[in-house]
Amino acid sequence: MLPALLLLLSPLVVARPTPKAAADPLDPSLATTVNFQGDSFVNHGLVAFGEFPADELDQFGDTIGGIGSAAALQRGSWKRRWDGSYEAVILAQPDRGHNEDGAATVDYPARHHRFHLSLSPYYDASNQTLDDGADSLELEYIDSVKYKERGGKETTGLDPLFVRKADGHWPDLPVSDRDRISLDSEGIAVDPRDGTYWTASASQYGPLIYHVARDGTILSAVSPPKSLLPLRDGNLNFTATTEGDSGRTSNQGFEGLTASHDGNALFAILQSATLQDSAKPETADANTRLVRFDISDAHDVKITGHWVVQLPVSDKNKTRATSDLLFLDDHTFLTLSRDGDGNGDSDQESSKKGADLIDISAATNLLDTQYSDSPDSLAPNGTLLPSITPAAYQQFVDYLDPVNLARFGLHNGEPLDDGLISAKWESLILAPALDDKNPDDYILITISDNDYITTNGHSIGQPYNDSYGRDVKIQIMAFRLTLPNVDGKKLKQYLGI
Q: CB within 10 Å: which end of the chain, N or C, has fewer?
């Protein structure tokens, strides 16, 4: 009787079932390897996919859209669960609000949203339905923070028709007719030292970088090299309605922003070449610029590096512009290069979407040259001068791989349905796989920008029905990668793990 009595008194231990995703090893048939700058980088394939509704509202009553424009992990939130799944809090920063082509800009205050992420990797090679595939990754909205100046004046998405002149440590700023800072937020990086944020107001109204407190207060602003500032007749021309003579091309500013893992540097990349480095027509604009900012003293930011990156070009001489930048080490990055075809565009067949490797270690540093301090062209008629060495470039993670898409019920090209891959992917997030057997493995999360396209939208108090005629859900994908050059310890410290 004693053994039976002891059994009754002992705490009940129940064996928890291990999900298939956690038990399965990585399928080697899904892996692709590229050799780059002496290292082997492995893409183990798409391991998770999710969707977010196109018509959900934030706490201010506005449609949650465009969240793929920029995203980052909240420090201390990335965790691996007992079953091999992951959870985190994602900071997602939309751009300037709902605008249809040719329509006027709207008075949409810049902001970031927080979402709870749940990710259950699927490592099997067999195909799933879209519904089953989308169960592997879920986003749940938490809350939002609007960006504002000291004193509470909110920012705006309206076109900056005016320039607020430099004052003290503040550079010239793009402002609307009501003297409110115009923001088109396209990049976000968390400062690990104090939890503040750096954001790039890029495509339309930059290229500038803003330092933002956790409550959304803009603390300072940073100007780029003079050669990137948009000039018209020798004067600053931040407006997106007319093209300038030199500097960033309209709608092609700092599209990508990333921080070094020690928090002492920011790197920003233009979406495509400056006006002075482009040819007409606008297809020869592949020679874009990457800039390093020393932020070790946030009150005295300095430009410490400036390089050329040559972006991929299609068979039809179309530049595959970059949409984000992700730090791997002091000279190596991932950049998101793509076309604009897919769900949300009139052309459903895409030919390029992916995360590619770049290395600036042997590239020419343009710092303190005429190509940094003046609008002199380094690529006359779009052809790079032979005296300038661009960054090394290697295509790596292919979003359009049909085998991986089919595993999650997705496809490229017709029909136009929820399984069609999104047209615009604009953010990259990196987190450690936290796998002791594979310490160099990481999870790469990427999010689409759906341009707020919905038939049931709300923007600054007004309903709208986008002319696209159907809801375009926000899509999220996750890949598992082996990245031998990433210092895992430093990344964990940066992420607060």
A: N
Peptide bond into 207 cis (omega under 30): yes
DSSP 24: S
Q: Which residues pair with 139 in a beta bridge?
A: 117
Is the separation of the CB atoms in 49 and 410 below 8 Å?
yes
CA atoms of 371 and 332, how far apart (whole Å): 23
Beta strands 32-36 and 39-52 are antiparallel
Predicted TM-score (pTM) of this structure: 0.93
Give, in order, the Cα–Cα distances in Å from 87 to each of 117, 136, 140, 144.
5, 12, 11, 19
Residue linked to tokens 């992916």: 354
Q: Are 334 and 428 in contact (CB under 8 A)?
A: yes
Which residues lie closer than 8 Å to 346 by C-beta, 6 or more apart? Answer: none
| Segment 162-200, tens digit of pLDDT | 999 999 889 999 998 889 999 888 899 999 999 999 999
Q: Find the distance separating the first CA and the last CA of the chain, reported in whole Å.
A: 49
Report the percentage of the chain scoring pLDDT > 90. Answer: 77
Please, how many CA atoms are within 13 Å of residue 410, restricted to the half-sphere of its CB? 28
Record the tokens describing residue 329, joined without a space: 């080490």
Mean pLDDT, rounded, for 82-100: 92
Q: What 3 state SS string does 473-488 have? A: CEEEEEEEEECCCCCH
- Per-residue pLDDT reduced to its tens digit, 364-411: 999 999 999 999 999 998 999 999 999 999 999 999 999 999 999 999
